[in-house]
Amino acid sequence: MYRQRVELEKEDFYLNEQGYKVFTEKYHLKRGYCCKSGCKHCPYGYDKKTDSFK
Question: How far apart are the first and last CA of the chain?
Fold first, then answer.
């Protein structure tokens, strides 16, 4: 059971100061689910500290 891979576009991510890929809200919505990793731009309202959705 694998989820379908989402092709990345230029506006789906940016590189932060440390060179890591940071996914945008647009990418998360295109992917269609929350991965519960505490992503910076999570549109689903997940809080990693409390392991809950706002």
Answer: 29
